[in-house]
Design brief:
single chain, 112 residues, alpha/beta, 5-stranded parallel beta sheet
C-alpha cells in the first residue's frame, strides 16, 4: 500500500517515523513543495520504501494521504485530492477562513 504525506519536516517527519515503525512494508511518498530539496532528501533516506517528490501528481497513486503541511495550505490540498479514490487525513485546522469553511461544510457525507 502507498501512503502519501504532504510535508517533510516537523510533525510530518514524526508521522512518517511512526508509520514506518508500525507499517514497515508500506511505500511512502512524501511531498515537499521545494523542488530544490527533493534530491537532497532522497539522498539522505535509509529506508527504500520512502520517496520524496515535488510533484503533487505522485500522490495520486496513494491509497491514503496525510496532510501535515502549513495550516494555510490544508484546504487547498483537500480540494486537490477530494475527487480521487483515497482516504485523506488532515491535521487541524482544516480551514482558516470562511470560504474554506463553506467549501468543507458543503462536502457530502461520503466525501467527509
Amino acid at each position: 500500500m502507498k501512503i502519501g504525506i504532504i510535508g517533510y519536516r516537523g510533525h510530518s517527519y514524526k508521522l512518517l517515523k511512526i508509520l514506518i515503525k508500525n507499517f514497515s512494508s508500506f511505500e511512502y511518498i512524501v511531498f515537499c513543495r521545494k523542488k530544490i530539496l527533493v534530491d537532497e532528501l532522497n539522498n539522505k533516506i535509509i529506508n527504500s520504501n520512502i520517496y520524496y517528490t515535488a510533484n503533487k501528481k505522485d500522490l495520486l497513486s496513494c491509497k491514503a494521504v496525510m496532510i501535515s503541511s502549513r495550516s494555510n495550505s490544508h484546504a487547498k490540498y483537500i480540494k486537490y485530492l477530494k475527487e480521487k479514490n483515497m482516504y485523506i487525513f488532515c491535521e487541524k485546522p482544516a480551514c482558516l477562513n470562511m470560504s474554506e469553511y463553506k467549501f468543507l461544510s458543503k462536502l457530502n457525507v461520503k466525501e467527509k
